[in-house]
TrEMBL record:
It comes from Dyadobacter psychrophilus. GO terms for molecular function: DNA-binding transcription factor activity; sequence-specific DNA binding. Pfam families: HTH_18. Residues 257-360 form the HTH araC/xylS-type domain. Keywords: DNA-binding, Membrane, Transcription, Transcription regulation, Transmembrane, Transmembrane helix. The chain crosses the membrane at residues 6-28, 35-54, 66-86, 98-115, 135-155, 176-196, 202-224. This is Transcriptional regulator, AraC family.
Length: 362
């Protein structure tokens, strides 16, 4: 039984480390939030590897590679904070200087590695760094405090997102609730067990091992199917715009003309349509057209146009006469000018990728 547990831990570690590396590389190339989800999984994968090491008494072996020296719990609250900001705040931009927040972690890993290396080379017996109160506080207690704070902020943002989602008239399915609260719920339970083990000194290590093993396999499965599963769709928050001094225009009449330009004249199929071109077509000032879209359509220009493009693609997907065309061909016909833009916008407006939408609506 003990051997089976060790094998299971090792498999969970392999699953977690492969997924974390793939997410980090994905984040470097495209989606920044994936970097921080990958870092979180990296820390958890090392934790389950540590459980394997304890199980097989690897730590005491003379040939042991001290992998535990590259693990820092401080990575968890920091990475979760940036992941939460990037996935719940559509206007948030992660800047290169923010990596400076990770400097204390590099310092921790350096001190720990030097401490272990010096003791190993000299053959002298050194006390554990965890026996030093300030070190214990900074590396064990501070990450727990940080996780509690970040989870409180993250949970509030998720609840606000749920309210906005419902206010937009969009139903939340069971999958939607899991997508919204799955990662949060897992980290919340993990933090509670973490607090119970470190602060209250309860015997919860076996529960933590089981939770990490199950979730690393589960997250690995989800990650391979949909790497952006926990990235929430963007809900457009309209800007508060004061009405320009265009009192001679009838808003309702011009709004009908605006919609007719898309519904009847398919203006959205112009791939590089601009606000100025739309305004010129309607013979209206661009500021007034922007006002109509922001105020009466609760949107901005790009999202307003893209909504018609997505609806055009969805309509043609259900049209038997269009079945001989690929989804990408329909996207280009609707006005999208790249595959990546189409996939991103389609997910934002429907909550599903084009392939997921086709599976549900076949």
């Amino acid at each position: 039984m003990e051997n089976w547990k060790a094998i299971l831990y090792l498999l969970a570690f392999g699953q977690g480390i492969i997924l974390s590396i793939s997410l980090i590389f994905r984040g470097i190339k495209r989606e920044r939030a994936s970097i921080f989800l990958g870092i979180i999984l990296f820390v958890l994968a090392l934790e389950i590897l540590n459980a394997w090491g304890i199980q097989v008494r690897y730590h005491k072996a003379s040939y042991a590679i001290p992998f535990w020296n590259i693990q820092s719990y401080l990575l968890l609250p920091l990475s979760l904070w940036f992941f939460a900001k990037l996935t719940t705040d559509q206007d948030y931009v992660f800047r290169k200087r923010y990596w400076l927040f990770f400097t204390p972690i590099l310092l921790e890993l350096t001190i720990r590695s030097l401490w272990h290396s010096y003791a190993r080379w000299t053959g002298k017996s050194f006390p554990s760094l965890l026996d030093i109160p300030i070190w214990f506080f900074l590396t064990e207690l501070l990450p727990i405090i940080g996780m509690c704070i970040v989870l409180a902020v993250y949970g509030r943002k998720l609840f606000a997102f749920q309210s906005d989602w419902k206010n937009n008239g969009l139903p939340l399915t069971i999958r939607g609730y899991f997508r919204l609260y799955g990662l949060f719920g897992f980290l919340l339970v993990l933090t509670i067990l973490w607090f119970a083990g470190v602060v209250l000194e309860w015997p919860v290590f076996a529960s933590v091992e089981a939770l990490l093993t199950i979730c690393l396999f589960g997250l690995g499965y989800i990650g391979y199917l949909s790497p952006t599963f926990f990235n929430l769709p963007v809900l457009v928050k309209p800007k508060v715009v004061e009405k320009p001094d265009f009192l001679n225009y009838d808003d309702l009449a011009e709004l009908k003309r605006l919609h007719a330009a898309f519904v009847q004249d398919s203006l959205h199929t112009q791939s590089k349509l601009t606000l100025e071109e739309l305004a010129a077509t309607l013979h209206l000032p661009s500021r007034y057209v922007s006002y109509l879209i922001n105020t009466h359509c609760a949107s901005n220009f790009n999202n307003f146009v893209n909504r018609f493009r997505v609806e055009e693609v969805i309509r043609k997907l259900g049209d038997p006469k269009e079945q001989h065309k690929t989804v990408l061909a329909l996207a280009f016909e609707a006005g999208f000018n790249s595959k990546s833009t189409f996939n991103q916008v389609f997910r934002q407006h429907t909550g599903k990728s084009p392939s997921q939408y086709l599976l549900v609506h076949k």
